[in-house]
Design brief:
heterodimer, A: 199 residues, mainly alpha, Rna Polymerase Sigma Factor, Chain: A, Arc Repressor Mutant, subunit A, 2 domains, 9 helices, 0% strand, B: 278 residues, 67% helix
């Protein structure tokens, strides 16, 4: 039987560690992905994910279910990412190493993917990562939450604590910067940006 | 100041044209259906906005290539990771109440056996009292109908209370007390109480065992650390002693050599002085 998040939270609040570990299993990948994309360090992203769940567990008695568990845990993760960025005081998103380990590549290779395709994908991924590093934190977070976590504008606004219109503006500005940067690096992005109204 | 697309015809002007919020809403299909329909109606007639949306769509396509490394996470929490309070909650044994009982409201839960026994004896004693009051003799095996029938000579409206003497009441009270006293010891060690007491004792034992184990561990750690400190001090003392002895030896060697040199010098001077006198 599959428990809902709310049911698992209720059981966890009585001290049931197994239920909470089920929640971790369900949400560790998205939280890690969010942390990695925001701070750009593999090991640190893992630490942030671990710390997120630890803090969530400790704060469970105060969690009354006023928000979805996922929203709550995303908020904790984002706060930790923000703390990490403040602590490091540096450009959060890192560059991928130049030297590519072929054995690692082979491990990532899909069943119908050639090594050339895989290398191209890795290169493209590196280009995107590099472009994302150019964005201010708020824009980058908005793009990440919308693009990779499929959140609604309202959910992002709640998480970032800003008006809905601000989220849209951040997204648009972020996408525009990314387009300019990616245009030169990828042949598929040949469309020139048009001049739009500025607010 | 708002900038309008250069190739945008004034007659085609719409509140959505080139508006970032509208473009992003349409791009992600996130907005009310009315709003999205209105934006779509505009986009179909506006080349600039169509091009802009296409470019943003291409950008989104490239963004999809970015994926985090596929590392094995396997994050888990143990009870010890939580705060002491939470850990206590997590590790404390759950009271041995069956789930089915726990879900039943208190008024529907079964009454303990000892309480049932007391209640039964009270009812029995009340029956005895009624029987005594009505007929002077205890209502033993007579039927309920017989017991309820008015006694001869009594008015149908009520019972003559004058027929019960104080002595009889006192005797009844004594008998009831005796019954209760007899039932109480038997009913006290009811299974639930005994089980609860056993659980408490077991828990206490476990806590005591944990405490003594912790104390023992701390004692052994303290002893170990003390030994280490003493050993370090002894080693340091030996090193210092060796250094001091070495230094003293050097000083003695130096002093001896100087003394010898001075003695030789003195002898030489004395020899020369003797030669000159001669």
């Amino acid at each position: 039987m599959t428990w809902t998040d709310e049911e698992l939270v209720a059981r966890s609040r009585t001290g049931d560690m197994d239920s909470f570990n089920q929640l971790i299993l369900r949400w560790e990948r998205p939280i890690y992905a969010l942390a990695y994309r925001v701070i750009g360090q593999e090991e640190d992203a893992r630490d942030v994910a671990q710390e997120t769940f630890l803090r969530a567990f400790r704060a469970l008695p105060g969690f009354k279910g006023q928000a979805k568990f996922s929203s709550w845990i995303y908020r904790i993760a984002l706060n930790l990412c923000r703390d990490w960025i403040r602590r490091k005081r540096r450009t959060p998103v890192s560059q991928l190493p130049d030297d590519v380990d072929l054995s690692e590549l082979a491990a990532e290779q899909g069943p119908s993917e050639s090594v050339e395709d895989l290398v191209a994908r890795r290169e493209l991924s590196a280009v995107v990562e590099e472009a994302m590093a150019l964005l201010p934190e708020e824009q980058r977070t908005a793009v990440i939450l919308k693009e990779y976590h499929g959140m609604t504008f309202q959910e992002i606004a709640d998480l970032q604590g800003c008006p809905l219109s601000t989220v849209k503006t951040r997204l648009y500005q972020g996408l525009s910067v990314l387009r300019k940067h990616l245009k030169d690096r990828t042949p598929s992005l040949s469309v020139q940006p048009v001049r739009v109204r500025e607010h | 100041m708002k900038k309008v697309p250069e190739d945008h015809h004034p007659l085609n002007r719409s509140p959505y044209c080139g508006e970032p919020g509208a473009l992003v809403s349409y791009l992600y299909n996130d907005g009310s259906s009315d709003e999205l329909a209105a934006i779509e109606a505009h986009v179909q007639t506006c080349d600039a906005c169509t091009a802009e949306l296409a470019a943003l769509g291409d950008t989104r396509e490239v963004l999809s290539a970015w994926s985090p490394p596929q590392t094995e996470l396997g994050l888990t929490l143990a009870a010890s990771d939580a705060l002491p309070v939470a850990a206590t909650v997590a590790t404390m044994p759950v009271p041995a109440v069956p789930a089915a009982v726990a879900d039943v409201p208190w008024w529907r839960q079964s009454t303990p056996v000892w309480m049932q026994a007391v209640a039964a004896s009270m009812v029995f004693a009340a029956g005895l009292a009624i029987g005594t009051g009505r007929g002077g003799a205890p209502a033993t095996s007579n039927s309920v109908a017989e017991a309820a029938r008015p006694a001869p000579g009594q008015a149908a409206t009520g019972v003559k209370t004058e027929s019960v003497s104080r002595g009889e009441l006192a005797e009844l009270e004594q008998r009831l007390r005796g019954e209760l006293a007899r039932l109480s010891p038997a009913s006290a060690p009811a299974p639930v109480q005994t089980a609860a007491r056993n659980e408490d004792e077991a828990l206490l034992k476990r806590v005591r065992a944990l405490l003594s184990e912790s104390e023992e561990r701390q004692r052994s750690e303290l002893a170990l650390r003390t030994t280490q400190v003493l050993r370090d001090i002894e080693i340091q003392r030996q090193v210092d002693m060796a250094t001091v002895q070495q230094n003293i030896g050097q000083i003695q060697g130096t002093t001896g050599a100087e003394l010898k040199q001075q003695r030789e010098l003195y002898n030489m001077l004395m020899n020369r002085a003797g030669l000159q006198v001669r």
